[in-house]
Amino acid sequence: MPSVKCLYVYNNNVYEIPRSRIKDGKKIEKKLTGKTVLEMEIIYSIEDRKPKKFLRILFNRVTFNSNGIYDFGSDSLTEQNRVQLEYAFRDITEALSHHKKSELSPLPIPKAPIIPSEEEIVTIKSYLNRKYPNLLNDSPYAIEYTIKKAKENHKEKIRVMKDSYR
Questions:
Q1: Which of 15, 32, 107, 144 could link 64 by a cystine bridge, Cβ 3.0 to 4.6 Å?
Q2: What is the pLDDT tens value at each position of the chain, 166 positions in all?
Q3: Contact in structure between 35 and 9 (CB atoms under 8 Å)
Q4: Domain limits of the chain?
Q5: 26-29, long-range: CB within 8 Å, 24+ apart, which pairs?
C-alpha cells in the first residue's frame, strides 16, 4: 500500500510535516515562517509498516507565510496545474475538437522543473539514510533519476510548445 511523506529542506535542515499538521489544504510549520524552501514529496510503498521503495518523487519550491503556513490550494498552484493539464490533454483536445494541432491555440511556456542543489540532495540523502534507510537501500539513485527525467520531460514539453506555434 502506498503512502506519502512531505519533506522540506532549508539551510541544511530537513523538516518533515506530519499529517496532523496538514489541515484544509494548508501545511503548518512554524520553524519555516516566511521562508522559501525545497519541498520533496515522496510517494512510497510500505513493507512491514516501514517505507520500502520509492514510487514517485516530486520537487517544488514553496513559501511559508508569516504564520508558518503553506497553502497548497492557492491560485498560483491552480495556474501551474492548468498549464500541466494543457500539455497532458493536448492530443485528446485535438481528437475531440476535430481540429488540427495547428488550428488549436498555442501552448503556454512550460514551467521549468525544480532541481535541488547538490547541497540539498546531500542533506536529503543524509536525512533519508538516518530516518528511512530502506528507501535509499532499495533505490540509491532514485533522486538523481527523478531529476534526469524531469529535465528530459521539460525538454519534450518545450519541443511540443514550439510545435504548437507552427
A1: 32
A2: 889 999 999 999 999 987 777 777 788 889 999 999 999 999 999 999 889 999 999 999 998 989 888 876 665 556 666 666 676 666 666 655 665 555 667 777 888 999 999 999 999 999 999 999 999 998 899 999 999 999 999 999 888 888 877 6
A3: no
A4: 2-164
A5: 26/69, 26/70, 26/71, 26/72, 26/73, 27/64, 27/69, 27/70, 27/72, 28/68, 28/69, 28/70, 29/64, 29/68, 29/70
Cell of 118: 547538490
Q: What are the grid coordinates assigned to 112, written together? A: 521549468
Distance between CA atoms of 52 and 45, rounded to whole angstroms? Answer: 6
What is the C-alpha separation between 92 and 126, in angstroms, rounded? Answer: 43
Q: Which residues contact 139 (CB under 8 A, 6 or more apart)?
A: 53, 54, 145
